[in-house]
Design goal:
By secondary structure, the protein is of the alpha/beta class. The protein has helices at 2-16, 20-52, 56-103, 110-113, 116-157, 159-206, 208-213, 217-248, 250-269, 275-316, 376-383, 406-412, 427-432, 438-448, 451-456, 474-487, 504-507, 509-517, 530-535, 553-559, 561-568; strands at 338-347, 350-360, 365-370, 391-396, 399-400, 413-416, 492-496, 522-526, 538-543, 546-551.
Length: 582
């Protein structure tokens, strides 16, 4: 039993990386207040003895000692509470920071293995539970000493009573531990169903339009009902075992308590015990069971929290099919040239990109074009380090991109996606993530052509955007995203089909934007718009993951059948989302 407990505690320390100073403070303060808790009944028995002997002086003296012990107990308890609070805050922020850092490096298959519902439950609930486990470990360790201390003091006055306290404590602990293992098993089952429920609700909210259009609600209700039924089954079973460990177990305590009373009465009748010792041993038996209950509760919380530890570890230890690593190179004086040398990308045993060789010069504007499925998006994924090449190398200036530190690389290569994400906060705070200087923000918005619109809003840059900016148009949301990308001051800007969500009037801003940025940044753009292709200094045509041709608009019109086709499909569907193009 204890070996299992130690294993769980070790798992916690491996994951949480707690502050040693805070943990020691928590442990020492707990030992102090628990030691004082053992002393209080002993001092109370001395007061009773002095009273029975009608010794007023010693009675007052012992009452004063009792007050001092109680005040010291409360101070130690207060210090323990503060140490506990500091520990929780430290561990919580540390784990949240590590999870957030991990989520910025996972690949696209992460949510296939870890559902969004489980992820949100882990971030919101599990991390808090792990933060609180520090106190449970302290409770576990100190309560052992507390139980031993009570039994030791009892043994000074009566060996049989000390043995009785020991046996009753072990029986109580064994029954509680058995019930707790069962409780924890069904808690895990219920939590898994809760994750499924959260994920299902999230997916339903994301697809409300389809739910209404195709009248999916009846079937969705059936699916949710099945999840709820399984959850209810596991929850009720869990509660039955909780009742055993919390209430039914009291029967064993009462049986041993009756035996204790009988033995003590016999000892008193035989003249082996005084009244104050009788009361003291009754109190210590009650206290010992209370300590065993605290000990068992600590074990229960440690077990439950271990499930949270497993869930957090599954995120932090997640390894994608292609584990991306960054280097330590902090060189930040870059010009922005990009070179692909014999680059291939293979996913699911199939080549998505094959033998790409090209160079993009400093401050050149290059358009990446091709039919859906030609590999345009995966080319961007390589530049964004979402995937890494199966073979070949990619260079930023003359340095292989994996050698740069993450901070340097991400500050020099920035992207504006066709479906940008905007936070539910003010426009200014959305831009603050990149650069908090309001003058720089205004300049970036002017370049993106969105400044005048922002100025017409009642609160200007302080206007709160709804979730995903639904209170402005898709085009305006896109231009704010582009302004955010410009604000990074990155040398290389990646524009991923940014005109997809733009209305005709807003789309006219993009050529102006390109002209403003030409000669200042390296621009690589995936586009379906013929007019933007024609603006490019150079065009790279992809076909089936390979470079079919590259050159200027005039040259490609003459010699590339694929390019001529792309120029002619001006009416191609604007709904061709990024997910359809690998």
């Amino acid at each position: 039993m204890f070996r299992d407990h130690i294993r769980l505690i070790r798992e916690y320390f491996k994951l949480a990386k707690v502050s040693r100073l805070l943990f020691v403070l928590n442990l020492v303060s707990a030992l102090l207040y628990k030691a004082l808790a053992i002393i209080r009944p002993f001092v109370a028995s001395l007061i009773i003895k002095a009273l029975s002997e009608q010794d007023a002086k010693m009675t007052y003296w012992y009452i004063g000692l009792f007050v001092i012990v109680y005040i010291a107990y409360r101070l130690a308890l207060f210090l323990n509470y503060k140490a506990y609070s500091w520990n929780v805050a430290y561990t919580y922020h540390s784990l949240q920071s590590r999870i957030l850092k991990k989520l910025t490096t996972v690949d696209n298959k992460f949510t296939e293995k870890i559902s969004k519902g489980r992820l949100m439950n882990t971030i919101n609930t599990d991390v808090i539970s792990i933060g609180e486990m520090n106190d449970e470990i302290s409770e576990y360790i100190t309560t052992i000493f507390q139980i031993i201390g009570v039994i030791g003091v009892a043994a000074v006055y009566s060996i049989p009573i000390a043995i009785l306290i020991t046996v009753s404590s072990l029986v109580y602990l064994k029954i509680h531990d058995f019930g707790d293992k069962k409780y924890n098993f069904f808690w895990w089952k219920a939590q898994t169903e809760d994750d499924r429920y959260s994920t299902f609700i999230g997916q339903t909210l994301a697809g409300l339009q389809e739910v209404r259009t195709f009248n999916m609600l009846p079937k969705l209700r059936d699916q949710l009902a099945r999840i709820q039924k399984r959850y209810t089954k596991y929850y009720l079973t869990q509660r039955r075992w909780a009742n055993l460990r919390g209430n039914d177990i009291k029967l064993s305590y009462y049986i041993f308590q009756i035996i204790n009373y009988i033995l003590l009465l016999i000892f008193m009748i035989q003249g082996h015990l005084e009244i104050n010792i009788f009361i003291l041993l009754i109190a210590y038996h009650t206290e010992a069971i209370g300590y065993v209950e605290d000990f068992s509760d600590a074990i229960a919380e440690i077990r439950v929290t271990n499930a949270s530890i497993v869930r957090v570890k599954s995120i932090l230890n997640y390894k994608g099919e292609q584990e991306l690593e960054f280097g330590n190179l902090s060189l930040d004086n870059l010009s922005g040239s990009i070179t692909f040398k014999d680059v291939s990308l293979k996913l699911d045993r199939q080549y998505i990109l094959k033998d790409l060789n090209f160079k993009i010069r400093r401050h050149e504007f290059v358009a990446i074009v091709g039919q859906p499925g030609s590999g345009k998006t995966m080319l961007f994924n390589l530049l964004l380090r979402i995937n890494k090449p199966t073979s070949g190398k990619i260079y930023l200036d003359h340095t292989e991109i994996s050698e740069f530190s993450k901070a340097v690389y991400t500050s020099n290569v920035a992207v504006a996606n066709q479906a940008p994400f905007i936070f539910n906060m003010s426009i200014r705070k959305n831009l603050d993530f990149v650069d908090p200087d309001i003058k720089h923000q205004i300049e970036a918005c002017k370049i993106a052509g969105i400044h005048e619109f922002i100025e017409t809003l009642p609160q200007g840059y302080n206007t709160i955007l709804h979730e995903n900016a639904t209170n402005i148009s898709g085009g305006q949301r896109q231009m704010i995203s582009i302004a955010r990308t410009i604000l990074t001051d990155a040398e290389v800007l990646l524009f991923d089909d940014i005109t997809t969500s733009l209305d005709p009037d807003t789309a006219k801003l993009v050529p102006k934007l390109i002209k403003r940025l030409e000669g200042e940044r390296t621009i690589i753009m995936i586009t379906k718009k013929p007019e933007l292709m024609r603006l490019a200094d150079r065009i790279i045509v992809l076909d089936d993951g390979k470079i079919s041709d590259s050159g200027t608009h005039e040259g490609l019109i003459k010699r590339s059948k694929i390019y001529r086709h792309l120029q002619n499909i001006v009416g191609s569907s604007p709904n061709n989302e990024r997910g359809n193009d690998v």
